[in-house]
Amino acid sequence: MERMRYERVLEACSLKKDLEILSFGDQTVIDERGINLSGGQKKRIQIARALYPNADIYLFDDPFSAVDGHTGSHLFREFLLGLLSSKVVIYVTHQVEFLPSADLILFLSTFLFMISTYGWIVPFFLDVKSAITFVVRL
């Protein structure tokens, strides 16, 4: 195990405090009958598992959906803009506050399909909450 990367991933996913409260830390076995984790904790663990291998391309399905605004901002800053800053990242999101950092945005809604940059696509955000947005950072 690459310890430095492991520690960096835990920090980027805000998991250090969560692991401290588990009886066996990161060695705690979590299964269907075991410890109950919140949706946000589950999401952050899923992200950490995806981040640990040093891949060239990462795909995330709504990585900010189960976390509060503060934690979502931390995740965005630390893992998308930080840890993965030199990687290709594709993610699906409804959180429009994270779109300005995208290199490309694929915007899907009931009546609209667009691929563009943030500055050009913003005027078309008529019904952002019901749209699905795929974001690419190259």
TrEMBL record:
TM ranges: 104-126
Keyword Nucleotide-binding part of the UniProt annotation: yes
Gene Ontology molecular function: ATP binding; ATP hydrolysis activity; ATPase-coupled transmembrane transporter activity
Entry keyword set: ATP-binding, Membrane, Nucleotide-binding, Transmembrane, Transmembrane helix
ABC transporter domain boundaries: 22-64
One term under GO cellular component: membrane
Coiled-coil residue spans: none
Protein name, as recorded: Non-intrinsic abc protein 5
Species annotation: Quercus suber (Cork oak)
Lineage start: Eukaryota, Viridiplantae, Streptophyta, Embryophyta, Tracheophyta
